[in-house]
C-alpha cells in the first residue's frame, strides 16, 4: 500500500466502503459518486479519472456530514497509525476536519483541518495518530453555502497496519 512490506486497508470507494468504516450511513449527507454524475465539481477522482468513484457532500446536504471509522486499538511504538487521504474542497466555504474520539472521552479532538483552498483541486494529506486507548477517527465535511459548485470530497483513504 505505502510500500510492499506493509499491509494496510485502502478505501477507494470504487465498489463500496471498506471495512474500516462500520457502516455506510449516508443520511448525514455523504454520497458516493463519480465525475460524470452531473452534480458539479469535482469532475474526476484524484487520479483524473472521471468514471472513478469518490465521496462528496450530497447537494441536498444540510451543510455538514460525518464519516466515522470502526474502533481502532491503541497504537504501539512499532506500528503507528497513519491515515493518508485525498481531499477536494471548493474555494469559497468548504471545510474538512479530521477528529479523534478516544473511548474515555465524549468529545472529539480535532487533529487536522483545512478550509477554503484557493484552487479547486485534489490534494493529499497524511495524519499520524498515537493513542494509548481505543479510538475512532471522524472525517467531517462542511459547506457554508448551498451553491451547486460548493462541495467537499474525499478519495482513497488508506490506513496503515498500525491502525
Automatic annotation (TrEMBL):
Transmembrane segments: none annotated. It comes from the Eukaryota. This is MALR1 protein. SUPFAM superfamilies: Concanavalin A-like lectins/glucanases. One of its GO terms (cellular component) is membrane. Residues 9-163 form the MAM domain. InterPro entries: ConA-like_dom_sf, MAM_dom, MAM_domain-containing. It comes from Bucorvus abyssinicus.
Amino acid at each position: 500500500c505505502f510500500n510492499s512490506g506493509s499491509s494496510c486497508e485502502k478505501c477507494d470507494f470504487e465498489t463500496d466502503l471498506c471495512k474500516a468504516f462500520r457502516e455506510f450511513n449516508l443520511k448525514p449527507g455523504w454520497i458516493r459518486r463519480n465525475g460524470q454524475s452531473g452534480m458539479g465539481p469535482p469532475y474526476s477522482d484524484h487520479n483524473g479519472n472521471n468514471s472513478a468513484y469518490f465521496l462528496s457532500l450530497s447537494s441536498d446536504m444540510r451543510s455538514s456530514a460525518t464519516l466515522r471509522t470502526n474502533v481502532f486499538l491503541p497504537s504501539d511504538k512499532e506500528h503507528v497509525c497513519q491515515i493518508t487521504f485525498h481531499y477536494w474542497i471548493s474555494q469559497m466555504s468548504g471545510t474538512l476536519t479530521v477528529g479523534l474520539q478516544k473511548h474515555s472521552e465524549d468529545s472529539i479532538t480535532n487533529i487536522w483541518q483545512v478550509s477554503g483552498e484557493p484552487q479547486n483541486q485534489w490534494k493529499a494529506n497524511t495524519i499520524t495518530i498515537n493513542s494509548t486507548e481505543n479510538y475512532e477517527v471522524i472525517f467531517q465535511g462542511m459547506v457554508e453555502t448551498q451553491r451547486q459548485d460548493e462541495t467537499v470530497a474525499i478519495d482513497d483513504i488508506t490506513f496503515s497496519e498500525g491502525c
